[in-house]
Amino acid sequence: MNKKPIFRLFVLTGLLLSCSAFWGCKEKSDEKKQTEEKVVSRLIVEFDEERAFREVEDLIEFSPRDAGTRGANLAANHILSRLTEFGIQAEMDTFEDNTPHGVKTFHNVVGKIPGTDGHWIILGSHFDTMSGIDNFQGANDSGSSTGILLEMARILKNTQPRTGIIFAFFDGEEAVAGYVQGDGLHGSRHMAQQLRNSGERQFIKAMILMDMVGDRDLNITVPQNGTAELKKVLLHSANTVGLRDYVALMTTDITDDHKPFLEVGIPAIDLIDFRFGSAPGLNDYWHTENDRMEHISAESLKITATIVLEMVRNLAFETDR
Ligand SMILES: [Zn+2]
Fold first, then answer.
1. pLDDT in tens, 103-153
2. How many A from CA of 90 to the centre of ligand 1?
3. How far apart are CA 73 and CA 75, in angstroms?
């Protein structure tokens, strides 16, 4: 399908105003309504896709960055530095885990913007790359979602959300032996277990994962294994910002970093374009040296970010949800 993202984004501002006005029709005061309109239009306008693209370019300088390597360590430190530069409260969580190739060291990077209601949403992306691929950049998998998340952190820092926002950058998503038990999803499993063990999971309203969301020919799909309520929020949000055509629900499951969160009872959803290839419908760039910068686009980063930012507005800023 041939889509015209520039045109769509051009008409977006007009749509936002009318849709936000419609949403505000319920029992909200004009003041509240205006505040929400300001937040949504400002966030989406402020998200700079060129900056996000440059974040991806900077990250792939550390490739290959598969878990346990020097590249992964440098990438994690780079992400931590970026969050700190944005003024986000951030830390590196270094831990060991068993893999089919022995014990490895992993580094999750976690940033937080506190809210006021004691609850949190998690925005997630992995940053490691698949091992064993020559000349691998991992621009789409996992650069695209990491770049988006960093740019989101930069713009959300200037807001005061009602519900706190956690930016989770996971290490060790990629499996080395085909996602057998205990292989891959190391960072996300570690974080989900921490939230379960500490009892904090009850305060997590949603976990939104992005993965492979920079394809020039963007088709965001949502695996069946995801929380129904969040799928509703996603479709509603995509519709509101005029980007509904980019999103489709799948009837199959995908093993990705949202899964460990679902398994501990945290509502979670995965936005993934698992057709990253040389022609529509193909996924032949995935896990090959063709996963390069020239096959992703700033426009696609903006489309994904626009939809997710509208979800964030619903979940963390909307006053009556
Ligand atoms: Zn991958």
1. 999 999 999 999 999 999 999 999 999 999 999 999 999 999 999 999 999
2. 25
3. 5
Report how far ligand 1's centroid is from the alpha carbon of 173 (Å): 7
CATH of the domain at 63: 3.40.630.10
In total, the chain counts a number of residues equal to 321
The CB density around residue 69, as the number of other CB atoms within 10 Å, is 17
- Domain that includes residue 73, residue range: 5-317
Distance 83 CA to ligand 1 centre (A): 24
Distance from Cα 10 to the centre of ligand 1, integer Å: 32
Q: How far is the CA of 160 from the centre of ligand 1 (A)?
A: 34
What total number of domains does the chain contain?
Answer: 1
For residue 27, the model assigns a pLDDT of 46
Q: Write out pLDDT tens, residues 174-223.
A: 998 875 778 999 999 999 999 999 999 999 999 999 999 999 999 999 99
Beta-strand ranges (E) seen in 194-274 are 204-211, 220-222, 247-249, 268-272
